[in-house]
Design brief:
The protein is an all-alpha fold and 63 residues long. 89% of the residues lie in helices and 0% in strands. The chain has two helices and no strands. Helix 1 runs antiparallel to helix 2. The longest helix has 30 residues.
């Protein structure tokens, strides 16, 4: 049986991996396709949306 500590640790690991991969992908996407000022703005807004989208994934990964 999986304890709550292990589930929480799994959720943190899944969240960190998903955010890390998403940040790298978003940075590449912004820097390749946009001018620098637009890339900075898009990255700032996109990062907060990415964090909101990945939170349910991490919660599901803890199950």
């Amino acid at each position: 049986m999986v304890g709550p500590e292990q589930s929480l640790r799994t959720a943190h690991i899944v969240y960190a991996l998903a955010i890390g991969a998403g940040v790298i992908w978003l940075a590449w996407l912004c820097l390749v396709h946009l001018p620098l000022w637009a890339a900075v703005l898009a990255f700032c807004f996109g990062l907060s949306l990415l964090a909101l989208a990945v939170a349910p994934l991490a919660a599901g990964g803890a199950l």
